[in-house]
Design brief:
Elements lengths: L9 H17 L6 H8 L13 H25 L5 H18 L1 H7 L11 H23 L8 H20 L5 H6 L2 H14 L1
């Protein structure tokens, strides 16, 4: 019988951490609440106090990931409130660092394994709030003449898509290691944004 290692409030985070580790190694097919309980060192029934099923655990992992990403982006952006260009570049660098430091969570957040997203209002709220923050930075850049005039939400998807694409390629080992030895992911993202800003 596993010992009670967790104080009140810690179990949920321990289960989320265990879920991330299992998803990273075995994929969604290898995830079960029983395995999560075993990895967290708690009884098989313990996860059900927080997660009725596997999808609710995936939603919690993704929600926590977006909460952290939002907090880090907001801190980076708010420190340059009068400089939209710096907001854009530092926001992109923050996104890169988040992906590098939380690779497993990052991959889960954008994997599409969460079915019926609308069933998880907390996830919908924080993911929408994060995108809205990106749109605000894009609008500020457009107002300053740094980015072309276009619908801000479409421009935000374009900029985010470029940054996310580079990050994903790097995380999946699809960018030449010889290039990454000369230029890290932040440098490559900065270059891509520079091309967008200067075009």
């Amino acid at each position: 019988m596993p010992s009670k290692k967790y104080h009140h409030g810690d179990l949920k985070n321990a289960l989320i951490k265990a879920g991330v580790e299992i998803l990273a190694k075995e994929g969604v097919g290898g995830l079960s609440l029983r395995k999560v309980a075993q990895r967290a060192g708690v009884s098989h029934s313990a996860p059900y106090a927080h997660f009725p099923d596997k999808q609710s655990l995936i939603a919690a992992i993704s929600t926590e990931g977006f909460n952290q990403l939002y907090a880090e982006l907001e801190a980076a952006i708010s420190s340059h409130s009068k400089n939209p260009k710096k907001q854009l570049i530092d926001g992109a660098k923050t996104y890169v660092r988040f992906a590098e430091e939380n690779t497993d969570t990052f991959k889960i957040m954008f994997s599409g394994v969460l079915e019926k997203e609308k069933d998880y209002p907390s996830f919908v709220e924080i993911s929408s709030k994060t995108f809205k923050l990106v749109v605000e930075v894009i609008q500020a850049c457009q107002n300053a003449g740094i980015l072309p005039t276009a619908p801000a939400d479409l421009m935000a998807v374009s900029v985010w898509g470029q940054v996310h694409g580079i990050v994903s390629l790097a995380l999946e080992g699809q960018i030449s290691h010889t290039l990454l030895e000369k230029k890290n992911i932040e440098n490559i993202v900065s270059f891509a944004l520079g091309e967008m800003i200067n075009s």
